[in-house]
Amino acid sequence: MNRVCELLGIRYPIIQAGMVWCSGWELASAVSNAGGLGIIGAGSMYPDILKHHIQKTKASTSHHFAVNLPLLYPDINQHVETIIKEKVPIVFTSAGNPAIWTKILKAEGIKVIHVIANSKFALKAVEAGVDAVVAEGFEAGGHNGKEETTTLCLIPKIVDTVDIPVIAAGGISSGKSMLAAFALGAQAVQIGSRFAASEESSAHPSFKQKIIEAKEGSTKLSMKAITPVRLLENDFAHQVFEAEQQGLGKEKLIELLGKGRAKRGMFEGDLINGELEIGQVAANFHQILPAKQIVEEIWTEFMQEKDKLTNLNF
Amino acid sequence: MNRVCELLGIRYPIIQAGMVWCSGWELASAVSNAGGLGIIGAGSMYPDILKHHIQKTKASTSHHFAVNLPLLYPDINQHVETIIKEKVPIVFTSAGNPAIWTKILKAEGIKVIHVIANSKFALKAVEAGVDAVVAEGFEAGGHNGKEETTTLCLIPKIVDTVDIPVIAAGGISSGKSMLAAFALGAQAVQIGSRFAASEESSAHPSFKQKIIEAKEGSTKLSMKAITPVRLLENDFAHQVFEAEQQGLGKEKLIELLGKGRAKRGMFEGDLINGELEIGQVAANFHQILPAKQIVEEIWTEFMQEKDKLTNLNF
After folding, report:
1. A305-314, pLDDT tens digit by residue?
2. Does B138 reach chain A within 8 Å, measured CB to CB?
3. Which of A210, A238, B133, B149 has its Cα between 20 and 30 A from that of B60?
4. Strand pairing of B142-143 and B166-169?
5. Are residues A23 and A111 in the same domain?
């Protein structure tokens, strides 16, 4: 049996990424009900909102689900308390040092998976005692590693570095790309962009439409002077690109970013001045579909392409 | 049978990239003798040098080989004349518009493969009448596309866009990564970095050593204001990164680059002031081996990993 399916108690090794402003209880429960793992993105939620989403997810699915917890979240103590009190079975941690929180969560019987983008942090995650890592490449949407290592280069490196299961993320939206990740030694995939544009995503409908219209070159890794983040181009993003090309530093970027831009763009649908985060792979799909259909299409294609690969003649 | 093997008359769908300062007759003939396709990199050769390398390759192998021809090469007429006169069976064209030269080469019975990094240029290559395309992702060494599309995102896109065979390039150095490329629909792989560090490569021994010591984050796509190129970090590269961070434009970069830097770095072994071009995947291998052993290791691992993938249970 697949190690990640066994670890997480799921049917298919397909994980929906926890994403700010996109992945609430509707998406998480739909993915878990479809046989994958749904994740609530806690990074954009106040503690009481997170509690509400966890409770709604539990009411909507009998399957396992997870919460994504950015470790730099200001109210992290409250988030962790909620997660423990509500008996969330799995937590994906990201953006921070897993050393402290892994122990606390695991003591409660919670499975912990940490997101990394290089082998140094993969080893730190192992040391912290996590059950698996998500290895996320340069093509991924949102926050990203400084080394700019692509999924194709990153996965074999991490698989060679750690003994725990590796979940591939970045650039995956289809059965074919899932199969490529498995060819590299991953034991599951984490998919963000395609689910951000699903029917159950809490992203604004205008943002979903813009995601499926994305083309090659429509996203760009930006804000490297602060924290690298992949942006979908719009007026705001072009201001950022311009400022970076002119060599304007951290302070100017922080000023440009201001507050609440991500909510404004992704949740409220301000496609001009909002911050829109999405992966490069948005150029590769063009439909807003129910999450269940996405899981099933990916799984079916994965199995079909695996057979095709098997039957290749040389 | 594999379409690329059939098209090019080779045993294994493993192509050694034509690279400036690294791939002369010794490397090309060794790869062709090992059952792959060896390519002479004409971009760093004067017309009489190219002629010499073609003749030496012909004397050293009875198998097919190719010449890589950057279409912006100043003496391109002379290069094409040499290629035709010496009856080179296959030409890989890059860095330029294939419209004119494809027709001329094909009229002589030469197979033409063009290197692209987006679907727009893939369609232009099909229109020009090429036999196959090399789709090269962001992680590749040397010159690179403006869209920064990674191999994982690029290959399925190009496979969906054209009917001719697609050869994957960028981030490939092993049987596992080759298998990932096939999972994405590629019918062959083109490998640069690993052969740049092979025994038969004409790269300077110090450069080869530096390649195999590369780590995650050691290379960076730079010079975007001129033509994007992936550099291995050294003093020169850091000057470039610094200039770019300060927002110094095209003119400053051209001045910094000066003349003959690539030769100085890669061929003459000036690791401080020379320009060193290599792919991100250099972080994933650590030995200088004979080309034959590289071809065999990759092929053996490819077949083994294909079997493993087949036998996965869910």
Report:
1. 999 998 898 8
2. yes
3. B133
4. unpaired
5. yes
